[in-house]
Amino acid sequence: MSCVVCHTEYPILTDFGRQFKLGGYTLGGAETDLPPIAFMLTPSFSMTNKGQPGGAAPHFADNSNFALNQASVFYSGKLFGPYAEGLFGKPAATFLNKFGTFIQATYDGVAQTFQWDNAEIRYADLGTAFGKPFSYGIYMNNNPGMQDPWNSSPVWSFPFSSSSLGPTPGASTLIDGGLSQQVGGLGGYVMLSNSIYLDIAGYHTLSTGFQRAMGVDPSGEAQVSGISPYWRLAYAKSMGHQSFEAGVFGLAANTYPGRDNSAGKDHIIDWGVDAQYQTSFGKHDITGLFSWIYERDTWSASQRLGGASNATDHLYSTKATIDYLYDKTYGGAVGYFQVNGSHDTLLHSESLSGSPLSDGFVIQLNYIPFNKSGGPSFWPKSNVKFSAQYIIYNRFDGARTNYDGTGRNAKDNNTLYLEAWIAF
What is the domain extent for residue 320? Predict the structure, then answer.
C-alpha cells in the first residue's frame, strides 16, 4: 500500500494506520519473499540565532552545522516475515503470524553512537463479547507509550523530528522520554467496539550490562525500583471523514537518582490528558493535537544527595499543534509548547532563578513529493519529506534574557532546522 493509506504526512497515522498498529503491524499478504526491513536517513542543517560557545556539540562548530541527524534500520511487520509457513507449517503459521514487531536501531550522527531505538514485539487478535467486536494485544517494549495508536501522547507527538544541535530546555516530565530505551515493559490493551481503548503495563529498568550492549549509556539515569505502572484510557469516535479521540494516561515510578540507592528512593507520578481531531475532505488533511501533563515529585533521595533543594516539586507541560496537508504533498504545522513548575535551584541548575519555565512556538513547512504517487521507478515504495522548521522561544530555562549569566537572550536559542526525512 502507498504511504497515504496509513499516514497523512508521516508519522501522523490515519484511522486505517491506527487499525494497522492495533493489529500488531501484521496486516499484509505474501507479495514478497523479502524480510520486513526498512531504512530512514535524516540529513540536516541547523542554525541558531546566536552561536553556542564551545560548539553546538563535540566536533561541531558553534553555529550553522550540517549533520546526519539520524540513520535508522527497522524490522517491522510480522515477526517471522513471510517465512512462518515455510518454517513451521500452515497450522502453526496461522498463530505465529499474529505476532508483529516494530524494532528500530539508530545511528546518531551528532553523538556518533549506534543504539537500539523504539522496540516492541506484540501479539494481536480480534474477538467478540456480548455481540460486540474488540481487538486486543499483549506487548513487550522499551518505551512507555510507544504502543499508543494516536499522535497526541508523548512518544509520537509533534515535532516529530528536530535538531540535535539546537539548545533545548532543561526540564521535562518523566513520561516524555525520561525512560526511553532504559526500561523493559510488559503490557496489554483492548479496543472495544473501535471506541474505548484501555492499556495497562509495567516497566522496570534494564541492567547496565544489557543497556550498554544495546548502545545505551546508563550513567546518571533514574533507575526504576520495582515495577513502574503505566496506564492509558481513551475514547475514540470516527464519523465519515472525521475522527476524534480524548483520553488520559499516566506513569508512576519509585526511582534511584543516578542509579544511587544509598539515600532511598524518589517518587514520581505523571498524569496526562490528551485529545486528537482529524479530518480529510477533498485535497485537505487536518490534524489537531493536544496534551497536558502534570508531574508530582517527592525527592526523598535526591534532596539528601544534593540533587534537589525542595522535598517536593511539581512540573507540567503543554503541547498544542495544528497540522495541515494539501493534496498529500504540501503541508505545514504550528505548535505551541510550555514547560513550567516549581522553582528549585538545585534541580533546575541550568536556570539562574531555579525556574523550569520555557515556552514558545514551532513552525514547520513540509514538501512530500512522492507521498501521493510513490517514489521513483527504481524504488517505488520510498518516500522523502523535506522540512523547514523554526523554533521560537519566548522564555528559556526561566528567563527571557540573561538566562545563563552571560547575556545570552532566550531568543538567541531560536533554531532553524532544515531536514530531508528519507524513508525506504
Answer: 3-423
Q: Is the pTM of this model over 0.90?
A: yes
| Non-local CB neighbours of 166 within 8 Å, separated by 6+ positions | 46, 48, 56, 391, 413, 415, 417
How many separate domains does the chain show? Answer: 1
In the DSSP assignment, the letter for residue 315 is E
pLDDT at 407 over 80: no
What is the pLDDT at residue 334?
98
Looking at the chain, how many residues does it have? 424
Nearest to 23, CA basis, from 11, 38, 13: 13
Q: For the domain that residue 79 is a member of, what is the CATH number? A: 2.40.160.10
Mean pLDDT computed over every residue of the chain: 95
| Sequence-distant (≥ 6) Cβ neighbours of residue 65 within 8 angstroms | 45, 46, 47, 56, 165
pLDDT in tens, 317-344: 999 999 999 999 999 999 999 999 999 9
Alpha-carbon span 299 to 257, nearest angstrom: 9
Beta strands in 49-195 (DSSP E): 65-78, 99-108, 113-129, 132-141, 183-192
Computed on alpha carbons and rounded to an integer, the radius of gyration of the chain in Å comes to: 22
Closest CA to 105 of 74, 79, 70, 80: 74
50 has a pLDDT exceeding 90? yes
